[in-house]
Write a structure and sequence with these properties.
Elements (H helix, E strand, L loop, with lengths): L16 H5 L18 H9 L13 E2 L9 E2 L13
Antiparallel strand pairs: 1-2
Length: 87
């Protein structure tokens, strides 16, 4: 059963078995909102600017300034970092 944007994920049957035997639930948690600079939708925003249909996919996207990577916009990076993998 799917609710909203969430869809069921088919896993190997061996993972939920211990939970079922213990009458517990099974939750798979993943971080699906991080992308790299080469992600196709980010590339589209770099190429098409405000007319890109993917502008809403990126938090804090602001045109009129330049990012440290010379993108024609600024955006909210992770923990203040624009490059993925920095801490």
């Amino acid at each position: 059963m799917s609710t909203g944007a969430w869809a069921p994920i088919r896993l190997s049957a061996r993972y939920p078995q211990p939970c079922t035997a213990a009458a517990s639930g099974f939750i798979l948690d993943g971080v699906l909102n991080h992308v790299g600079r080469d992600f196709w939708a980010f590339y589209d925003v770099r190429q098409h600017g405000p007319s890109s249909p993917y502008c809403g996919w990126f938090q804090g996207l602001r045109f009129g300034g330049r990012s440290p990577f010379d993108d024609p916009f600024t955006y909210e990076g992770w923990n203040g970092h624009y490059k993925p993998g920095q801490s």
